[in-house]
């Protein structure tokens, strides 16, 4: 299958489609509109919350599916919920109890339409400014436990977070999918959740298969999607673990170079 024949395009956001300032620039917006006008189906496939992504989709102004929370939620073109899978409610607090031993790690929870964090964070307020999606603060000793799409932890030392990943996997490995979206962000979802499985669900819902999909990503949370899609493209700025996991996948430029938009212009539009 030539690249032009792929019907479905799925892209990660941060580190992939979005510029380094975490905004969608005008060239990328125009490219997505042109892609839509060519009859292609576009999917935002991200670790972000669906409320946040809906704001970004509105900026672009095209109908698009949303795979969010790394596949724990899937919404169709009309915002109908196609798929939802929560972290088991009985393990949410125990997982947080592991992480809270280090008070410097930022703990985040996506609960249904809400976002909670264990302490104020001015950077995150700026990060989500365009979407208008704001967090609330929660007590780490009394975390919300129902309707949890994902829990994620942020800390500027990858190896330190990786130790907690090991501990969580040792205790709850059969019940969770733990992966890094960036080297400094460890994300915990239910075991069956991945962007790849969500992409399969979207494709089948509109009469296509995974081989009809082309996907872009840069994080370990993209590996399933990039390996399962008909063609999976790795960003040149991806973490080494992604290159190691996908040694045969084509590598393109970086998000600073608008590599996704340029690839789409050159091959699908």
Describe this structure as you would to a colleague.
The chain has ten helices and 13 strands. It has helices spanning 13-17, 26-37, 50-60, 89-99, 122-127, 158-172, 195-205, 223-228, 240-245, 259-267, and strands spanning 8-11, 41-45, 65-68, 73-75, 81-84, 106-111, 114-117, 136-137, 148-154, 176-182, 185-190, 213-217, 231-234. It has a seven-stranded mixed sheet, with helices on both faces. A six-stranded mixed sheet has the order 8-7-6-9-11-10, with helices on one face. The mean pLDDT is 94.
SSE blueprint and pairings:
Layout: E1 8-11, H1 13-17, H2 26-37, E2 41-45, H3 50-60, E3 65-68, E4 73-75, E5 81-84, H4 89-99, E6 106-111, E7 114-117, H5 122-127, E8 136-137, E9 148-154, H6 158-172, E10 176-182, E11 185-190, H7 195-205, E12 213-217, H8 223-228, E13 231-234, H9 240-245, H10 259-267
Parallel strand pairs: 1-2, 1-12, 2-3, 7-8, 12-13
Antiparallel strand pairs: 3-4, 4-5, 6-7, 6-9, 9-11, 10-11
Helix pairs in contact: 2-10, 4-6
Notable traits:
13 strands, six-stranded mixed beta sheet, 10 helices, 34% helix, 269 residues, single chain, alpha/beta, seven-stranded mixed beta sheet
Cα radius of gyration in angstroms? 18 Å
The average pLDDT is 94
Spatial order of the strands in the main sheet? 5-4-3-2-1-12-13
Order of helices and strands: EHHEHEEEHEEHEEHEEHEHEHH
Strand content: 15-25%
What is the count of β-strands?
13
C-alpha geometry: globular
Distance between the amino and carboxyl termini: 16 Å
What structural class do helix, strand and pairing data support?
alpha/beta
Helix content: 25-40%
Mind describing the biggest β-sheet? 7 strands, mixed
- Total number of helical segments? 10
The residue ranges in which pLDDT falls below 50 over 5 or more consecutive positions are: none
């Amino acid at each position: 299958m030539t690249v032009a024949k792929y019907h479905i395009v799925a892209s990660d956001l941060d580190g992939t489609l979005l510029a380094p300032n975490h905004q969608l620039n005008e060239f990328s917006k125009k490219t997505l509109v042109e892609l839509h006008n060519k009859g292609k189906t576009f999917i935002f496939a991200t670790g972000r919350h669906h409320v946040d992504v809906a704001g970004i989709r509105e900026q672009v102004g095209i109908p698009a599916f949303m795979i969010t929370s790394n596949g724990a939620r899937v919404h169709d073109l009309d915002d109908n919920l196609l798929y939802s899978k929560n972290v088991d409610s009985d393990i949410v607090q125990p997982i947080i109890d592991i992480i809270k031993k280090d008070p410097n790690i930022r703990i985040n929870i996506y609960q249904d339409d809400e976002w909670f964090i264990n302490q104020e964070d001015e950077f995150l307020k700026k990060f989500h400014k365009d979407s208008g999606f704001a967090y609330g603060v929660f007590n780490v000793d009394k975390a919300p436990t129902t309707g949890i799409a994902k829990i994620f932890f942020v800390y500027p030392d990858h190896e330190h977070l990786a130790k907690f990943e090991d501990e969580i996997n040792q205790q709850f490995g059969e019940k969770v999918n733990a992966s890094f979206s960036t080297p400094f962000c460890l994300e915990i979802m239910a075991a069956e959740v991945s962007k790849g499985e969500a992409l399969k669900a979207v494709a089948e819902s509109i009469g296509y298969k995974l081989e009809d999909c082309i996907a872009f990503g840069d994080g370990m949370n993209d590996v399933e999607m990039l390996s399962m899609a008909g063609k999976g493209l790795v960003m040149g700025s991806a973490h080494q673990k992604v290159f190691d996991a996908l040694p045969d996948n084509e590598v393109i430029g970086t998000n600073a170079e608008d590599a996704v938009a340029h690839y789409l212009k050159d091959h699908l539009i």
